[in-house]
Structure prediction request, 220 residues.
Amino acid sequence: MKSINTRFGQVEYDPANTLHFPCGMIGFESLREFIVMPNKKQGPLFWIQSVDDPEIAFVLTDPTNFFLDYRVVPDDNEKQKLAMEEEDDCHALVVVTVNSGNDFTFNLLAPILYSPKANRAIQVVLEHSNYSTKVPLPAV
Amino acid sequence: MLVLTRKVGEGIRIGDDISITVVEMKGGGIRLGIMAPPTVKIHRQEVYDRILEENKEATQWIIADLDDLSARLPMVKEVK
Prediction:
């Protein structure tokens, strides 16, 4: 086990078991290894902490909790980056921007494709969609 | 920055496997044709910049706000 001192405190992790981003996140291409952190509070949100930069952590969620028809399917090139076989599972996750004062949005334009089997993830851009980087929670 | 002048139908080549051709000029816009291997990601600059800014902004959060938010969000199904 290794440990890093993040801005949320000391975190222990197994370096053999980190979530691998072969291309990093957009703008953070050099950060390849993340620890998945469950949120202490019950709910749909969790976060990933960079192993390489203790300052960098992203809040993620399964978007289908809120956007029922949101689907992202990896193309062949993306499957390769995720080290996926044809029948392997792949889930879409999205980054949640949490601002203070109860303001938060979902980045539906650039979701994260996650392959549980390989424990790999990539951020992709849905250029031919009408999604934006700041989608509010839909009104129920 | 390298600046080159090209006419419609002309192009430039970058490295061994990327070529960009000026396809058409119309109404102040220029249409470009790009040939590149499928592994090369090509994005409109402003789209890429917007996502980069959003990612940066998304790293600036504190646990208290996340806890507040978690308490308010509906839980439709279990997170994997």
